């Protein structure tokens, strides 16, 4: 970890498997970030007291085909150095705990405070009545109105039970750490993992917040293949096809988005060019 210390104005990005992670879209987004940014392990939470191991069981893994080791379900944190950004990133990839949610959030908050985290971004995904043929809807919330407006967040109107993602975001705000969340809407009729189109939508939002290019690898092609496969399956069932058409019509009848001003379009285009433009000296930071 010495090569990462001290961290530069770190941003924490968190996703939790389970209730908060329809189609594994959010956890896949964090995994993608860890892969493309060469994440290095930082720490992990002691799972004792947070998880019911009869619900989320530990797993046995063979090492070198001989030695058996136990891997316990927990929440792991890793660090990424972003060479083209003034901020480093702390990734949180966890499993929604079964017990002691406030204590769980306190442990994550302590890590955030110790490393002087400047902002927390929560990623989630939910099942929704949306068609797979349209762009994935991403709703969200922010710690203040100005941030919400600047990110063009479509406010969620949801009220009801929440998951650890919502609880952790609230804990961050209460502790004085700016926190925002993005939720991708996964079509409920195709909720099986993976859901690359939703993962892609979340990563685009991460790009916007960090103002850096996120290498997407094969995700765009996987998203196209996913949509084509779902469309092919749906075409073989008239009832499903009719249902999807009704969802498409409902989206088209919704109130259209207000057109962006020329100034905001130009500013966003400039940010896009900065993220995607060639970087002097290549993309290596080591």
Describe the protein's architecture and organization:
The chain has helices spanning 25-36, 101-114, 145-150, 164-174, 196-210, 219-235, 238-253, 262-276, and strands at 11-17, 40-44, 59-63, 67-71, 76-80, 89-95, 119-128, 138-141, 154-155, 179-187. 37% of the residues lie in helices and 21% in strands. The longest helix has 17 residues, at 219-235. Helix 3 links the parallel strand 8 and strand 9. The protein has a single domain (11-275), classed as Rossmann fold. The strands form two sheets. Strands 2-5-6-1-7-10-8-9 form an eight-stranded mixed sheet, sandwiched between helices. A two-stranded antiparallel sheet has the order 3-4. It is α/β, with parallel strands linked by helices and 286 residues long. The protein starts with 10 loop residues before the first strand and ends in a 10-residue tail after the last helix.
Question: What is the secondary structure topology, with strand pairs?
Answer:
Elements: E1 11-17, H1 25-36, E2 40-44, E3 59-63, E4 67-71, E5 76-80, E6 89-95, H2 101-114, E7 119-128, E8 138-141, H3 145-150, E9 154-155, H4 164-174, E10 179-187, H5 196-210, H6 219-235, H7 238-253, H8 262-276
Parallel strand pairs: 1-6, 1-7, 7-10, 8-9
Antiparallel strand pairs: 2-5, 3-4, 5-6, 8-10
Helix pairs in contact: 1-5, 2-4, 5-6
Protein name: PAC2 family protein
InterPro entries: Proteasome_assmbl_chaperone_2, PSMG2_sf, Rv2714-like
Organism: Nakamurella multipartita (strain ATCC 700099 / DSM 44233 / CIP 104796 / JCM 9543 / NBRC 105858 / Y-104) (Microsphaera multipartita)
